[in-house]
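TEACHING EXERCISE
Course module: macromolecular assemblies
Task: Read the component lines below, then compare them to the predicted structure of the full complex.
Student: A.B.
Group: 4
Components provided:
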Amino acid sequence: MSDNGALLSVKNLRKEFPIRKGLLSRQVGAVKAVNDVSFDIARGETLGVVGESGCGKTTAGRSILRLIEPTAGEILFEGKDVRALDTSGLRAVRRDMQIIFQDPVSSLNPRMTVGAIIREGLTIHKLAEGSAADARVSQLLDEVGLRPEHRTRYPHEFSGGQRQRIGIARALSVEPKFIVCDEPVSALDVSVQAQVINLLQDLQREHNLTYMFIAHDLSVVQHIADRVAVMYLGRIVELAPAEALYREPLMPYTQALLSAVPVANPAVKKQRIILQGDVPSPAKLPPGCVFHPRCHHPAKDVACTKIIPPLEAKAEGHFVACIKQPPTQVSWEQQQQAGGTKPPERYLPTAALR
Amino acid sequence: MKRTTVWSRPSTRVAVVTLAIFFLGALFAPVVAPYNPTAQPDIVALKDLPPSVAHPFGTDPYSRDVLSRVVYGARLSMGIGFLATLISVTLGVAYGAMSGLAGGFVDAVMMRVLDAFMAIPRLLLLIALLAAWHSLPITTLILFLGFTGWFSLSRIVRGQVLALKESEFVMAARAIGANRGRIVVTHLLPNLYSVIVVAATLGFAHVIVLEAGLSYLGIGVPQPLASWGNIIQDGAENVSGLWWLSLFPGLALLAAVIALNTLGERIRETFQSTR
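Instructor-supplied answer key:
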């Protein structure tokens, strides 16, 4: 139910990739790419999703469109249960949900002209045909900043930024309400990144679009997102309005990410939070809080290795999965029972976050 | 742009012109050939003649005109090669694409079956099969050559399909609502053209050589029909004396195979440059 007015509501989404071994393809384990992820996106909103590579953000985005079949969870789009849809229902809902890919090279069929690529959705959903379809293709090209005569060319004749615009035109062709932008600018030059992001913002305003904007670059997300979800090892570890997240990141992982964002001012000496070790394998997740092996929170103790932290509100609309940042539902007594020795205390290393 | 530079390369032109001459010669053999290829006009006076104006490629021990036999040989050798390749390519693409699309268990079984086929040397298999006929019908020869020629292509196609079906543009097509059939026809097959065309061209050359070999061994195209292989065989017993008998069909075979291989290479380059 979209009782809270959300366009998209994701509940307890999971995606596991089985690890098979041997002659009989026996399943010996599973990579938990997306592990119990829940969030809502309101109409017209942009939810930024950040995290390093392998944290499951792309898998989450693709699972929502069922381009990858999720293992478990609920996906409600305008109240419709996307996971329960049959082929024709899914085709219908895909008119409303589109995706823009990261790689502008591999996301366009090299054997199709730009016109044919953009036209495909029009044909499939019977939106226009003949000269009406030609006119619509021209209009879409114009809308994304390309010229109508580009329609007869092939993708390899275009630059990365132009190719990404073609991908955007393709997504727009079916007049979607929601678009998963899967790192749409991370393969582009910095100068081109800004153009494409501005284009996406203009389009959002004109068409009242809702975005799930996946990125690994925090500064890009800060610019475009209303709210930001930070993912680590398949889980959302912090979810907050963009402004609050950048001003007051409470999850130690987010703090480390933000401390790594370079500042364009050589006079500012920023303290970096250097994380210890590597990201653990998603096939062998650490028990308790997935971030505990690398955490620098001063109150980190044995309880962190035992208790899976719930994603809970620390302030209005600011959700964090950390039992050491007060307030928390996991009481000090419960933490002590799990072997905890250090009571929760607020930790915000401001020197690292300027 | 790149396309024109590849096509304008001299070797491409030479190959295309050579093949065009062979194809036209084969097609219009009755017009091009000066004599009837199986006629034995005077088995005493006109036998074993060296090349002359009347018989540019000489005559054979049965007084048949070698030029006419080579021209008609082109018809048979290239015709057999073309049809056999058509069968191989169709089977190879169908089998490989099915295997790749199905994936999982079906794919594994289909690939093991293919391994079993590939374990048998093609030439030996053909010899074993064709030896059963006393006078081999041409259709049977074409079918056998076609049915034994698709294994490696189907493996290549399967690999390509596996890669393509996971590609982002196929995912994008699914996202926009394309069904399975549409994805195969508009997204997979056009991206297989380059592989198919190159494999077909090189396979064509290979089948021509194979047929020539079988005919040379006497189990391919039966006499008195002329194929390049059995004309070479006619002269093989007396290469020092009747050198023209093996030389001209041999040169024709060589030219056709080199032209086809060159063309295959050029097509590969052309497709790569437009990636």
